[in-house]
Amino acid sequence: MSQRSLRDRILDPSETALAWALLTPAILFILAIVAYPVSRLLFNSLFDVRPALGVPITFVGLDNYATALSDSMFWRAVKNTLIITFVTVPGALVIGLGLAMLANMPFRFRSPIRLALLLPWALPLAFVGLIFAWFFHSEYGIVNDVIRRFGGEPQIWFNSPALTMMAICIATIWKTSSFMALILLAGLQTIPASLYEAAEVDGASKWTQFIEITLPLLVPSMLVALIFRTLTAIQSFDIPFSMPGPGEETQTLAMYIQINTVDYLDLGYGSTLAVFMFMLSMATTFVYLRYVRGDKD
Amino acid sequence: MRLNNLFTSKRLRWFAAGIVLFNGFFPAVWIFFTSLKNEVELTAKPITYWPQNPVLTNYIAAFRDQPLPGYLLNSAIVSILSMLLSLFISALAAYAIARLNLKRRNLILTCIIAVSMFPLVTLMVPLFEIMRSLNLLNSYVALVLPYTVLNLPICTLILVSFFQDIPRDIETAAMIDGCTRLGALWRVVMPLAAPGVFTAGILAFVNSWDEFLLSMSMNAAVAYRTLPVGIQMYQGEFSFPWPTISAALVIALVPVVTVILIFQERVVSGLTSGGLKG
Fold it and tell me: Cα A246 to chain center, whole Å?
């Protein structure tokens, strides 16, 4: 076979046909598991769909949306979700940056350090919720034990919505900061040492070096990590579910959607709530992307 | 290395290592200690740190009170099936994007990656309805299919970058020897991209292994529960058997810890590849 005909084969337009054939399984999966369900979701949000009650599926227009807007449990769930997001995203960033700086020191044995950053990432969120629920146990938890040892007043954490939220946020920050640290550590390792050496020559203090060199050069890694962290924070479910406070005071939007859909089988209302979740995520992505673009211009 | 000058003192380095290690391992260690304590010791005040009389009864209880091996098996089946399926699908897609004559390849890749921006909770609602109407609730399919799609973005992203790094000449040589395009993908490109395939596979496995919301919503029946859901079932309405839960957690941790112990470098490179390229 001559070189020329092989070249023809590679650049052949039928290559494009093969490319689309290879993309087909992925496209089919995305259509079946994402695109079709989402169209179904938008459709259902306009209907009264309660199969368990045996009521016929009826078109209700925007009634479900109106219900949600006047539903105090919905707003409470949104509030809790936003609290978790606004506390744990910056929290994980700060703690993650600290861990990354510490882990970036010249250690002889890197493997245990790497494992210490990987373990929280690999632990299922649901496990983390249970483990921290045990930490914050009012009688036998280590947190109250430490508080007692320092002469403080032990708390009944899960009797108070505020304290429960605090415990949920601490568990979430612990779980997510190590992923943040791994991303930032990779970013730190791409910063050329020569920059610090030059700053050293110029007599810049360590703090100035951190502010002027480290932070700006870390911004790209931070943004990517922050987008994903924020999107997952908005969907907080596993940890708040495993660390329930009094009543449903600390319910998140994801939990409220899940209860309406799976437990109450109110598929119309569940779909409407899910649309709100979708809009919240899209708004977040939009804000970040705008920021990224604005940054580049 | 660059902070070398900043923290030269050995003591400071030990201190830093101590903080990172404590932060990472303490919760797992504490759960392990709890799992070895008997009822009397657990309810002693002040609480003990180091287990005084380590017992294994909690591990026996963990297996007695819930079908733990069944949960492990379900998690393994679901995670491995969806890992293989997403590797297969994303390898084909990644090859098309990285290698073949395709217009707007970046747009296609972006569309696949955009799937990961999609809130899972939002997908859960219609998927629950669809699976329910197809009588697929409480089945492996109900989890394997969604998990496969959830893993597609990261797997495709990783494989595209690995495929791009393989010299075209090697493929061309294989094709001169009579390989077809797909033959070259299977016999030459995939083996050369093995590190990438491993990385993508491990991330897909861990993602599926950890998933809770879909699993709880779709497969509530005992026979199909995965570990994260099953672990929650130890608690009674009024009782919280912490030592038993701790023992179950320790057992449940073994597979994940093994995976990250063996593949830690691959996992780190996979996790950070998105961050650095994005």
Answer: 25
> Which of A23, A149, A186 lies at the smallest CB-CB distance from B275?
A186
Domain of residue B202, CATH code:
1.10.3720.10
Minimum Cα–Cα distance from A29: chain B residue: B149
B161, part of any domain = yes
Q: Which of B23, B121, B145 sits opposite A116 (nearest CB)?
A: B23
Reported as a pLDDT band with limits 50, 70 and 90, residue B277 is very low
pLDDT digits (tens, 9 = 90+) for B22-78: 999 999 999 999 999 988 888 777 778 888 888 888 999 999 989 999 999 999 999
**Which residue(s) pair with A47 in the sheet?**
A59
Predicted ipTM of the assembly = 0.89
Residue A64 pLDDT = 92
Give the whole-angstrom CA distance, residue B68 versus residue A147: 35
Closest to A34 in 3D by CA, of B127, B203, B121: B127
Task: State the distance between the two ends of chain B, measured CA to CA, in whole angstroms.
Answer: 24
A141 located within any domain:
yes
Helix (H) or strand (E) holding A23: helix A14-30
- SS3 labels along B106-168: HHHHHHHHHHHHCCHHHHHHHHHHHHHHCCCCCCCHHHHHHHHHHHHHHHHHHHHHHHHCCCH
Peptide bond into B46 cis (omega under 30): yes
The domain that holds A157 is classified in CATH as: 1.10.3720.10
Judge if B31 and B154 occupy the same domain.
Answer: no
Are residues B246 and B30 in contact, defined by beta-carbon separation less than 8 angstroms? no
Angle at B239 between CA B46 and CA A253, to 5 degrees: 105
Alpha carbon distance B103, A148 (integer Å): 66
Give B134→chain A minimum CA distance, Å. 13
Is A32 within 8 Å of chain B by CB?
yes
Please name the residues in contact with B259: beta carbons below 8 A apart, sequence gap of 6 or more. A122, B202, B205, B206, B267
DSSP string, A166-232: HHHHHHHHHHHHHHHHHHHHHHHTTS-HHHHHHHHHTT--HHHHIIIIIHHHHHHHHHHHHHHHHHH
Tell me the residue range of the domain where B126 lies. Answer: 66-277
- For tokens 């649901």, the residue is A126
Has residue A204 been placed in a domain? yes
**Which structural domain range is residue A235 located in?**
86-246
Contact list in A for residue B253 (CB cut-off 8 A) is 123, 127
Which pairs with CB-CB distance under 8 Å and at least 24 residues apart come from A196-204? Answer: A196/B2, A196/B3, A196/B5, A200/B5
SS3 A116: helix
Please tell me which residue of chain B has the smallest CA distance to A253.
B121
Which residues of chain A does B109 touch, with a Cβ-Cβ cutoff of 8 Å? none
pLDDT digits (tens, 9 = 90+) for A235-261: 999 999 999 989 899 999 999 999 999
* Cβ–Cβ contact A12 with B under 8 A: yes
Sign of CA dihedral B266, B270, B275, B277: positive
